[in-house]
Amino acid sequence: MAAALAVVNIGQLVTLAGPARPRVGGELRELGLVEDAALLIEAGRITAVGACAEIRSQIPDGGTVIDAGGNCVTPGFVDAHTHLVFAGTRAAEFEQRIGGATYQEIAAAGGGILSTVKATRAANEDELLAGARRRRDWMLACGTTTIEAKSGYGLERETELRMLRVLARLEEEGPAHIVSTLLAAHTVPPEFAGRREEYVRWIVEELIPEVVALKLARNCDVFCDDHAFTVDEARRVLTAARQHGLRLRVHAEQFRPGTGAALAAEMGAATADHLEAVTEKGLGELREAKVQPVLLPGSVFALGRTEYPPARKMIEMGLGMVLATDFNPGSSPVASMPFVLSLASVQMQMMPAEALMAATLNAAWSLGVGDRKGSLEAGKDADFLIHEFTDFRELAYYIAAPLRPRVFVAGREVTL
Q1: Both 251 and 277 in a single domain?
Q2: What is the DSSP letter of 4?
Q3: Which has the closest alpha carbon to 308: 289, 321, 291?
Q4: Looking at the whole model, is its pTM more than 0.90?
């Protein structure tokens, strides 16, 4: 068994200790701060949290001691919405958007998701793994230790399964924890143009059962929007996923109201993601169903839009909010969770404490791993960051700065 690890001389320890559930309202600012603190870790789990003098007396003989230098320590980030596995680039579309083309116009001309589908279908598993590993390392360098990642750039059996196998291989090799999501209902592939019903039937009757049998995904997602899937189509996919034991997630109300929030509530989904165009009625339905909103300000920023999700309204209404990157090659080539915290603070008026809670503990609960991830409490995985600064607010304050935390996953320092 590995020797115990103690992290001492922590100037400000952000524990997020408290109720074992997503935090809402004023709880989002209750960070469980401990000054002059320390952590004790054994076998990859936190065994004690408290004052430095107290923890020092508990360090077993032969234990390793790391001095945090009086700096801030936080949980590792939990990025609860990414599209990590793909091939190719969409830099040309980035340029088109700068020139005035909209996301929908690019998609209608054969670009967008379908251009990535073409490149991803042409890549073999090792090529996809190499690309995903490189991007995973970008995220780790920014302090992300748990990553939700989706398929959805295959839209046919072989490539969807290949993407999910890549995610399984990333989870097996570590160090980041990967939570896999099936997103075959991302858009209708060109070979099914005019045959949408057949594509939905294939997902429902063939792909979902196979993915579950192979244990390649924990969640099922669907993109419910004008250029993706209708509410009725999305309901069919989600119903089949639920029947096969998958947790449900919905891309909802990104561009227009009425595209998924009510459905997420109806289906008891774990999350409704995007919500830039959500109405107050939709938010009320999500709250009643205890669906967690996953806000993705990076995609709003990267698309050059100004309609950010109504974060303050969500906080006032008592929703268990989550922040994530939506990292993908088209609408959000954003890998940095600290940058997302900055966007949330500047553009959505979220206080730095609220943003940090949404990017760690609440995100972990949205993925069904809140009992192990997202806070620094006894019994939880020792996934934490030792920062170069002394105040957690500096995570959001230094916008797009090359912050360089020391990253630990299960008590082991990550070297990249």
Answers
A1: yes
A2: P
A3: 321
A4: yes
